[in-house]
Amino acid sequence: MAKKQEFSYSEAMAEVEQILASLGDGNTTIDTLSERVKRATELIAQCRTALRKTEDEMVALLGEQQNE
After folding, report:
1. Distance of alpha carbon 68 from alpha carbon 31, whole angstroms
2. What is the domain range of residue 52?
3. Tell me: the pLDDT tens digits for 5-63?
4. pTM surpassing 0.85?
5. Residues 51, 57, 61, CA angle at the centre, nearest 5°?
6. At 1, is the pLDDT very low, low, confident or very high (cuts 50, 70, 90)?
7. What separation, in Å, do the N-terminal and C-terminal C-alpha atoms of the chain show?
8. Residue 2 three-state SS
9. How far apart are CA 59 and CA 53, in angstroms?
10. How far is CA 45 from each of CA 7, 16, 41, 42, rounded to the nearest angstrom?
11. Does residue 53 lie in a domain region?
């Protein structure tokens, strides 16, 4: 069974930026366009999930602080 890769928000965003740069430079072939857009979409979804999770954790922590 393949081990799930550790998610790093910073690394994911760096990869998205790299993909966007490669799309913008005009050197992306039609053969790789779909693959790169799909990967960027997956990374963005993971980043959104991480941001929501962090926001929920911060709201919970701040709520605990107010209740003390």
Report:
1. 58
2. 32-68
3. 677 999 999 999 999 999 898 888 888 999 999 999 999 999 999 999 999 999 999 88
4. no
5. 145
6. very low
7. 45
8. coil
9. 10
10. 12, 11, 6, 5
11. yes
Q: Which of 59, 68, 62, 11 is nearest to 39 (CA)?
A: 11
pLDDT at position 38:
96
CB 65 within 8 A of CB 30: no
Task: Show the tokens assigned to 57.
Answer: 């954790």
Is residue 44 a part of any domain in this protein?
A: yes
Query: Residue 64 and residue 47: Cα distance in Å, rounded?
Result: 26
What is the total count of domains within the chain? 1
Q: How far apart are CA 13 and CA 10, in angstroms?
A: 5
